[in-house]
Design a protein that fits this description.
Distance between the termini: 65 Å
CATH topology of the largest domain: Spore Coat Polysaccharide Biosynthesis Protein SpsA, Chain A
Order of helices and strands: EHEHEHEEHEHEEHHEEHHHHH
Radius of gyration: 21 Å
Helix content: 40-55%
CATH architecture of the largest domain: Alpha-Beta Complex
CATH class of the largest domain: Alpha Beta
Largest sheet: 10 strands, mixed
Low-confidence stretches: none
Mean pLDDT: 91
Shape: globular
Strand content: 15-25%
Number of strands: 10
Length: 347
């Protein structure tokens, strides 16, 4: 058998001593020499606790584990360092507070090899409390048996209503040569997964997809993490990430050179929805200054963002009366500025 790994697992690590062992145990329970060799690349992103020492100790237990260490640069920076170091044919990325169910990865690798697929979507994440994850006995878990559809081209997936949700809380394996030089955007801290994944879908490659959404990964969001944190600086960073997301989706839309009308429509909807999300967010909680938000509105106007496409009749997008009203407010600059000024007075 070739000594080169078939699968590279990328594991970004920052101050994760409380969770990393469960993640590594779950990956080891996916080891299957009959169909693949696996390397696990743990990227220590400038941890300030004993994460690096723990990873060094865990290498004696998990010979597949390789440790890269770098200055702190954030989650996307650590993922990118892992992508740069990966030598496998396939890439799987997992966070150090999640775990994958036993025996899942060999199934998706076999299916992707059989069909020469470049993207393999194979399951969904089960949201669990910290206590529930800690109490899971991985060795006693039943191996989920995944059924796959016949492969299809990734761009045809844009036609599916489910496309909206297939970049959140799902599990994916990518072929490394398909990713090429693409990397996670390091300027945003929310929605970066969706940007990266959707850019891969646009490549019109063969895609393997599950028949029914089996839970294949345990997923926990800690109250101290970026998503739920109420720390004012982190909340403002989330707002600024919406600005970055808007620009990333604009680039995605401008960069699409194909002629699939479903793709063009979905990119238009995504672009408009992120414009909506950014400006409505300020009406709910003005985290950016009036000057910042007015400049962003002007920039959006110059870039032809208005009027926002009507997404309220599309499956899975908000369609209640409040969303329709807010869309109209955002679409009219004078009205938006009036409501925003009132919101700042009430802040």
């Amino acid at each position: 058998m070739d000594d080169k790994p078939l699968l590279s697992v990328i594991l970004p690590c920052y101050n994760c001593t409380a969770t990393i062992e469960k993640t590594l145990q779950s990956l080891f329970l996916n080891k299957d020499e009959s169909c693949m060799r696996m390397e696990i690349i743990a990227v220590n992103d400038g941890s300030t606790d004993s994460t690096l020492d723990l990873l060094g100790n865990l290498q004696t237990r998990y010979p597949e584990l390789k440790v890269e260490s770098k200055e702190n640069g954030g989650l996307c920076s650590a993922r990118n360092a892992g992508l740069n170091a990966a030598s496998g044919k396939y890439i799987y990325i997992i966070d150090p507070d999640d775990f994958i169910f036993p025996g899942v990865l060999p199934q998706v690798i076999r299916e992707m090899e059989r069909n020469a697929s470049s993207i393999g979507v194979f399951g969904i994440k089960q949201r669990m409390s910290n206590e529930e994850v800690n109490n899971v006995d991985l060795t006693a878990m039943e191996v989920p048996q995944i059924e796959f559809n016949e492969p299809f081209q990734s761009t045809t997936f844009f036609s599916s209503p489910a496309f909206v949700f297939t970049t959140f809380l799902i599990e994916i394996v990518f072929r490394k040569d398909m990713i090429g030089n693409d990397r996670f955007c390091e300027d945003i801290c929310i929605g970066e997964d969706a940007v990266f994944i959707r850019n891969q879908y646009l490549k019109d490659v063969k895609m393997t997809f599950y028949k029914k959404p089996l839970k294949t990964c345990g997923y926990r969001i800690l109250s101290t993490g970026l998503t739920l944190s109420k720390n004012p600086e982190r909340v403002r960073n989330r707002a600024l990430s919406r600005v970055g997301l808007l620009r990333e989706y604009s680039k995605m839309k401008a960069g699409y050179k194909g002629n699939n009308p479903d793709v063009s429509k979905k990119l238009e909807l995504l672009d408009s929805f992120h414009v909506y999300g950014l400006f409505v967010g300020q009406l709910g909680n003005p985290l950016l200054s009036k000057t910042e938000i007015n400049n962003l509105y002007l920039e959006s106007e110059k870039n032809g963002k208005f009027p926002i496409v009507n997404f309220t009749n599309e499956p899975y997008y908000p369609c209640d009366w409040k969303s329709k009203l807010l869309r109209q407010i955002v679409n009219h600059k004078w009205l938006y500025k009036t409501v925003l000024n009132i919101r700042y007075l009430l802040k």
